Amino acid sequence: GRQEGRQEGIQQGIQQGIQQGIQQGIQQGMRQGELQKARASAVEMLRDGVAVDQIVKWTKLGQEEIEMLHQNLDT
């Protein structure tokens, strides 16, 4: 009775933890993919001579990050 209930509770907790971990991993992967896409777009815009403030507006990246990408293009 009691022992079985405890084991069942432990199993449910483990399953929930696994599900949460999978969900968080998926969400993190999606965010990283979006960030990589934004950076790639920013690089292309920089190459085309688009102003940094416009790149910030369209990519939602920070100005510092765009300036860093710009410096990396020059090297």
Task: Please give a structural write-up.
- By secondary structure, the chain is an all-alpha fold.
- It has one domain (2-74).
- The chain is built from three helices and no strands.
- Helix 1 (2-47) runs antiparallel to helix 2 (52-59) and helix 1 packs across helix 3.
- The longest helix is centred in the first third of the chain and has 46 residues, at 2-47.
- The protein is rod-shaped.
- The termini are far apart.
Helical content stands at over 70%
Q: Report the portion of residues in β strands.
A: under 5%
- Counted by DSSP, the helix tally is 3
Largest sheet: none
Q: How many strands?
A: 0
Tally of discrete structural domains: 1
Mean pLDDT: 94
Report low-confidence residues grouped into runs of 5 or more.
Answer: none
Oligomer description: single chain
- How does the helix and strand content classify structurally? mainly alpha
Organism: candidate division KSB3 bacterium
Protein name: Transposase
